[in-house]
Amino acid sequence: MMKYLVILADGFADEPIERLGGKTPMMAAHTPHIDELCKLSRCGFLKTVPDSLHPGSEVANMTIMGYDAEKYYEGRGVLEAAALGVDIEANDLVFRCNLVTEEDGKLLNHSAGHISTEEAQELIVALNEYLGNGVVQFHTGVSYRHVLVIKNGRKGLSCTPPHDVPGEYVETILPKPLEGNETVTLLRKLMFDSIDLLNNHPVNIKRKKEGKSVANMIWPWSPGFKPNMPTIEELYGIKHGAVISAVDLIHGLGRFGGLQSIFVEGATGLYTTNYSGKASAALEALDTNEYVFLHIEAPDEAGHEGDVELKIKTLEDIDQLVVKPILSYLNANKDKLSVALLPDHPTPCEIRTHTRDYVPFMIYRPEVEADSVLVYDESSVKEGAHGFVDQTQFMQLLLSGKK
Question: pTM of the entire structure?
Answer without folding.
Answer: 0.84
